[in-house]
Design brief:
Elements: E1 8-11, H1 20-31, H2 37-59, H3 68-83, H4 88-95, H5 107-115, E2 120-124, H6 128-138, E3 144-147, H7 158-168, E4 175-179, H8 182-190, E5 194-198, E6 214-216, H9 219-233
Parallel strand pairs: 1-2, 1-4, 2-3, 4-5, 5-6
Helix pairs in contact: 1-2, 1-4, 2-3, 3-4
């Protein structure tokens, strides 16, 4: 696959470009400073299970659509109850921790490098408001940032990926979806997008049955591979 075959890059954000668990852990330490590391991990698991479970219920039609902000508030209340915290201000701050996620070390420079050659589209399950705060905090560079809120559903619903296709004005096969989650890439493939897996410690690794177009160690490696492919094609 060469650069000339791709018109834009579409990036998953949570986990792929920012370290979501690290940001949530920081919020939990602020919420309950007395918690030890195992206690933090138990609460992190509680948070993640709630968010993933409720998104799945929405996808299955078992619950009306709610934006990520509302799910984060629910998760924050669950975590606070489990930690024995009843301070409303502290719970409200915990609910906003998903907007203060640190970028991976290669993210900012990698996006800047790729942005010199491609339009970059962020495509996230985070709400519009959360995505604005997250992008600003992590210093993410986009030409367009799209929220699943615009489709009133969550990835891996095809309607979310269609947002990127519609905004780009290009056929799906001219877009490269970049993610650290194999489930995300499989869904993008289903709509016809090209795919690039980027390895992250918190991602969903590919299985032996997955066939993605590119496999990269980080964004610098992804840019190198696109450079090399274009050089070979030229």
């Amino acid at each position: 696959m060469s650069e000339s075959e791709i018109d834009a890059l579409v990036f998953d954000v949570l986990g792929t470009l920012v370290d979501e668990p690290a940001g949530i852990r920081a919020g939990m330490r602020a919420l309950a400073p007395w918690l030890d590391a195992p206690g933090i991990e138990r609460l992190l698991s509680l948070w993640q299970q709630h968010i993933e479970g409720e998104q799945r219920r929405i996808l299955d039609g078992a619950r009306p659509y709610l934006a990520s902000d509302a799910l984060d508030r629910e998760a924050a209340r669950l975590v606070a109850d489990a930690a024995g915290v009843d301070d409303p201000a502290a719970v409200a701050a915990m609910a906003l921790s998903g907007r203060r996620l640190p970028p991976w070390p290669d993210t900012v420079a990698g996006l800047a490098r790729l942005a010199e050659r491609f339009p970059l589209i962020g495509l996230s399950n985070a709400s519009r408001t959360a995505l604005l705060g997250l992008n600003a905090h992590a210093g993410l560079r986009w030409h367009q940032a799209l929220s699943a809120e615009d489709a009133r559903t969550y990835k891996p619903d095809p309607a979310v990926y269609q947002l990127a296709v519609t905004v780009s004005g290009r056929p799906p096969e001219r877009l490269l979806m970049v993610a650290a989650h194999a489930w995300d890439l499989r869904a993008a493939q289903g709509l016809g997008l090209r795919t690039a897996y980027v390895s992250r410690p918190v991602g969903d690794p590919p299985t032996s049955a997955d066939r993605f177009d590119l496999y990269a160690d980080d964004l610098a490696d992804l840019a190198d591979q696109l450079d090399k492919a274009d050089g070979l094609s030229g």
